[in-house]
Amino acid sequence: MLVSWISETPDTIPANASHVVGAGALVINKNTKEVLVVQERSGFFKDKNVWKLPTGVINEGEDIWTGVAREVEEETGIIADFVEVLAFRQSHKAILKKKTDMFFLCVLSPRSYDITEQKSEILQAKWMPIQEYVDQPWNKKNEMFKFMANICQKKCEEEYLGFAIVPTTTSSGKESFIYCNADHAKRLKVSRDQASASL
């Protein structure tokens, strides 16, 4: 990006995009109590024998909830519906040692169960018991992964509410989404539906 600040006041134009938004998918098979995991063909996790959740970068103009479902389908062939955001983390100077990485851990509910790996990126994909996923040496020795795995286990084994989406519109009429506590999101949707029904 090439800019030239003309005013005599301090330049307030941001240098360039400062954040990259990524998402990981905890896809839970409630019938078997297993989660969808992948081993990557390339990148940081290549040859590390780590089974990880499907992850990816959210595209420009794409919502988190649609982007994470897209990534799951691309990497594994599994069609899944967004349920909620469980957690998110922020890591500065993470991408190219310059950009801030915002990563959202999301829960998805599968509509299909037959896996078809994306051959260009994924070495293997499978359904794995949550305890086996949590107990991997990588997750035990890396604090951030340990914390994320613990949150996944809590969601699989007991009630753990995250942030659900509430569709809304901006003041200019553009579609937008609020992420809030799942119980509150349900109440907001019900009150909006009741208001619409009374018109």
Automatic annotation (TrEMBL):
Gene3D superfamilies: Nucleoside Triphosphate Pyrophosphohydrolase. This is Nudix hydrolase. One of its GO terms (molecular function) is metal ion binding. The gene is NUDT7. Its cofactor is Mg(2+). It comes from the Eukaryota. Keywords: Hydrolase, Magnesium, Metal-binding. The lineage of its organism: Eukaryota, Viridiplantae, Streptophyta, Embryophyta, Tracheophyta. Its EC number is 3.6.1.13, 3.6.1.22. The keyword Hydrolase applies.
